[in-house]
Amino acid sequence: MNNPLQSYFRQPAIYVTLPSKGRWYPPGTVTMNEQHEVGIMPMTAKDELTIKTPDALMNGQATVDVIKSCVPDIKDPWLMPSVDTDSVLLGIRLATYGDQMEITSSVPNTSETQTVNVNLTAVLDQIGPVNWQNELLLSNGLKIHVRPLDYRHITKNLMKTYEEQRLIRTVNDSQMDEGEKLEKFQSIFSKLSTLNIDSMVTMIEKIVLDDGKEVTDRMHIKEFVYNMDSSIAKKITQYTNTMAQVGTAPPVTIQTTPEHQEKGADKSYQVKISFDNSNFFA
Question: Tell me, what's the pLDDT at 56?
Fold first, then answer.
């Protein structure tokens, strides 16, 4: 028997164009219309509670559950490429709370803070389709093809980095002698270096040799990354770090008041929107 209240169920409030246009999603994991848009529904009361669960926020499960609820066109948010993350989260915020969001920031060169309203629709419009340059040509003739990390890898990296940084603080505040601390720090920094290198391996989709042969075997690529010289590593790191910013929300320009300027502030400054779930979805 059909629910007589079904017509009152939530419907998509907005449609957001995926910057990736569906690229990098495994087959069957995303459904889009002809404009590469996905429908986004407002959060439910359960979603709002989910997004405030600390443990689920740490491991990314809360964000994934809310995306599943609000953006059913994305079947598996864990596999969503990083270039779409900011647009999807902005869309959920817009669908639920409207296009105005308060941001409190510190005014540079002063001890003051100020709170302003930001138009999130304008921020979302500035992201647009991604210009992903997936090929890096090295001086030795190798062509490195890269792809964005998916949400699972991003969350995994953030958790590992957080755990290692927390361990650094613990060791630093401990009563260990300096020799023991140094040994612990070296171990931590080694793990962080390995994390960065493994992220590079994950982003490399394939390597094309100067004779046109393509190398896609993951073990071969990993072995290459762990054995290439530092000059090549620096070029690839710089390139992947640059590409990792593609699709992210641009910073917001905030105007200062005459009072702030009298205290040393410039006429304006930029603030990066925080996607911390505790305030972004509050």
Answer: 61
